[in-house]
Specification:
Length: 67
């Protein structure tokens, strides 16, 4: 996998390290980025599941009138 180098504010990185409980600045930032991506995937999956019942009911023909 390709790697990049970025510059971040030291206080920001230290806060991420403390919150993530990680001793390495690189590992802490990587953990935050991976978590952010995983959250996005979970949200997409949840939205798809919520859309499915609506799509199925939209494709059904209207019920016949009783009488």
């Amino acid at each position: 996998m390709a790697k990049i180098n970025i510059s971040l504010d030291a206080e920001l990185v230290v806060e991420v390290m403390v919150l993530a409980g990680v001793g390495s600045p690189q590992d802490a930032v990587e953990a935050v980025v991976r978590d952010y991506i995983a959250r996005g995937h979970r949200t997409e999956a949840r939205v798809q599941l919520q859309d499915e019942p609506g799509r199925k009911s939209e494709s059904l023909p209207p019920p016949l009138p009783e009488g």
